[in-house]
């Protein structure tokens, strides 16, 4: 009598693994982006021009820096609703320090430090008190917006006297490519490498996938949550400084609603709201898709009110897909 030594479900597992190659969110996003490019190339003669391509890249490069941090936080199982406010705080603090006579580079470090401090306080609230990231960041968003108003007294700071050498980080170009775009892709490459190769960043996935199992395996999950929260706010602070250099001003209401765009881009890119999954490449494609959709709607003269509706529907679709995928994995 011959015994069947094939493990139950082994064939199914191989099929699932093979089929999974075609279910990668990144491949789907690339296909959608390619389709939009094809359609828009026939719809508008301005879409494929270098001027429009550069405008789209600029529109998502700075915000994309914030998306990198949000993606890592979502992987660990967190969520940050304060990133838009933290971007504004970094601008306001740095701008106020500059107007007080501080060197713009030192002032920028002060703005980034203020952003990191917000992340530290949120992280401690989550890890020490036990509040969720949602509640902690919601409170932080309101508090930080209030701080921005207090610092500026509700009046935008005019920073047109910033030196040209400093404005370069927001307005300059190298080899004909805006410096902001180059910086964004450097950060993308760096954090993509770290997420795939660095042991510390692998612990982010373990923590987000199963906190209890991660803790049993010796991972300090509270420490992981803390530094990832600080990292997210710090990257938001860096984005705030670049915005300040680009715009030459610091407005206390800047970044309102940015958190929704950032979360949408990360989720569209494959980061799960339940944690444990996500990629930097997917996040980049997510923010690129939103930027391309916005540019396309503008070029075909769609009302700004409809633009928000369409982007909201895209977010709803992404979250729904994420939910269905989670149910499929659990089945």
Question: What is the CA-based Rg, rounded?
Answer: 21 Å
**Could you tell me the strand content as a percent range?**
under 5%
Order of the strands making up the biggest sheet = 1-4
Order of helices and strands: HHHHHHEHEEHHHHEHHH
Low-confidence stretches: 1-23
Mean pLDDT: 83
Regarding quaternary structure, what we see is single chain
- Specify the biggest β-sheet: 2 strands, antiparallel
User: What global shape is seen?
Assistant: globular
- Tally the helices: 14
Count of extended strands:
4
DSSP helix fraction: over 70%
Structural class: mainly alpha
Kindly report how far apart the N and C termini lie. 35 Å
Features:
331 residues; two-stranded antiparallel ribbon; disordered N terminus; 75% helix; 4 strands; mainly alpha; single chain
Give an overview in words.
This protein has 331 residues and is mainly α. The chain has a domain at 62-255 and 273-278. The chain has helices at 10-20, 25-43, 50-75, 83-99, 104-129, 133-152, 164-171, 179-197, 199-209, 211-216, 221-247, 258-268, 280-299, 304-330, and strands at residues 157-158, 173-174, 177-178, 249-250. The strands form 2 sheets. It has a two-stranded antiparallel ribbon with strand order 1-4. A two-stranded antiparallel sheet has the order 2-3. α3 (50-75) packs parallel to α8 (179-197), α3 runs antiparallel to α11 (221-247) and α4 (83-99) packs across α11. The two termini are 35 Å apart. Residues 1-23 have low confidence and may be disordered.
